[in-house]
Amino acid sequence: MTDPHAETSHDGTSGTASLTIDSPVGPLTIVERDGALVRLRWGGAPGSDETALLRTAAAQLSGYFFCELQQFDLPLALAGSAFQHDVWRQMKLIPYGRTRTYGDLAAATGGSAQAVGNACGQNPIPIIVPCHRVVAANGKLGGFSGGAGAGTKRALLSLENARPPDPAGKGDKPRQGALF
């Protein structure tokens, strides 16, 4: 849902621009640097710069919120440790409408569930790198650093009609009981 009156800003750093759009989870500001997205944050940013990449990202986010897009195809430049990059790669592998547990990602990356949770919290491009699809093993949502926290995570999972992780780790069959 791109706002036709979306504002963009230039933060004074060479090659960095941002675009603010309206979304069902509140205003989102997409930040680009040197031809790649570097951040998505909740809230607006005033200004006047806009790029083709930011317009494409806004269109893809709109498609996601209208349930017309299930996978983003955007250049990303994520700043973080090697472990964080491993976790973020694993998050990008979680299909639309599915979830995995912090423990699943810990097993895949060789870290602990707590370290995975910390990496999720440091994800600079939520929604596009879908940290909202990572949940606790006990069927609870776990944390979320964007928007209204767990309420925003619940809204994103509801939008995707997400299913809880399969106890066997395949994600094909929902467990008994409501997750969301």
Query: Which structural category fits the helices and strands?
Result: alpha+beta
Proportion in β-strands: 5-15%
Q: From the coordinates shown, what is the CATH architecture of the largest domain?
A: Orthogonal Bundle
User: What would the principal axes of the Cα set say about the shape?
Assistant: globular
> What is the terminal-to-terminal distance?
24 Å
CATH topology grouping of the largest domain: Arc Repressor Mutant, subunit A
The CATH class of the largest domain: Mainly Alpha
**CATH homologous superfamily of the largest domain?**
Winged helix-like DNA-binding domain superfamily/Winged helix DNA-binding domain
When the domains are counted, the total is 2
SSE string = EEEEHHEHHEH
Structure summary, number of beta strands: 6
The order of strands across the largest sheet is: 1-2-3-4
Question: How would you characterize this protein structure?
Answer:
Helix content is 29%, strand content 14%. The chain has 180 residues and is of the alpha+beta class. It has 2 domains: 8-65, Double Stranded RNA Binding Domain (2-Layer Sandwich); 82-159, Arc Repressor Mutant, subunit A (Orthogonal Bundle), CATH 1.10.10. The protein has a 4-stranded antiparallel sheet with strand order 1-2-3-4, with helices on one face. It has a two-stranded parallel ribbon with strand order 5-6. Strand 3 and strand 4 form a beta hairpin. Helix 2 (82-92) crosses helix 3. It is globular and about 45 Å long.
